[in-house]
Automatic annotation (TrEMBL):
One of its GO terms (molecular function) is peptide-methionine (R)-S-oxide reductase activity. Residues 1-122 form the MsrB domain. Pfam families: SelR. It comes from the Bacteria. The keyword Methyltransferase does not apply. Belongs to the MsrB Met sulfoxide reductase family. The keyword Oxidoreductase applies. NCBIfam families: peptide-methionine (R)-S-oxide reductase MsrB (TIGR00357). Keywords: Oxidoreductase. SUPFAM superfamilies: Mss4-like. This is peptide-methionine (R)-S-oxide reductase. InterPro entries: Met_Sox_Rdtase_MsrB, Met_Sox_Rdtase_MsrB_dom, Mss4-like_sf. The lineage of its organism: Bacteria, Pseudomonadati, Pseudomonadota, Gammaproteobacteria, Pasteurellales.
Length: 130
């Protein structure tokens, strides 16, 4: 588990304070390799690359979580319209939001801050933090 003092300022802002990174700014936004997306704080698996798609929104988007317990869902009323906040099911780190405008087969769009994840390349084993 990554401690607060080991995190970058933007990781603290997003993961611990429910902030948002600027769109199109994250290292994992345009990641095309095959692999596993993990929580940057606790390293729990969240998404596989086969579920990633380009939603054109500026953040990494996925149509399905790796498992039902990987993600925690909370009602978010911070804006003028209600949203569903998504957090890591293991450590409760803020990830982003869930929308109902994704592609088949789920129709869901997990819109995730790049800095809240680490990508594990299946071929090289390299880990890239967003």
């Amino acid at each position: 588990m990554k401690k607060r003092e080991e995190m970058t300022d933007i990781q603290v802002h997003v993961c611990l304070n429910q902030g948002t990174e600027y769109p199109f700014s994250g290292k994992l936004f345009d990641q095309q390799k095959k692999g596993l997306y993990r929580c940057v704080v606790c390293h729990s698996p969240l998404f596989v690359s086969d579920t990633k798609f380009d939603a054109g929104c500026g953040w990494p988007s996925f149509f399905e979580a790796i498992s039902p317990e990987a993600i925690r869902y909370l009602d978010d009323y911070k804006l003028s319209h209600p949203r569903v906040e998504i957090r890591c099911g293991q450590c409760d780190s803020h990830l982003g939001h869930l929308f109902q405008d994704g592609p088949p087969p789920t129709g869901l769009r997990y819109c995730v801050n790049s800095v809240s994840m680490a990508f594990e390349d299946v071929e090289s084993g390299e880990i890239i933090e967003g």
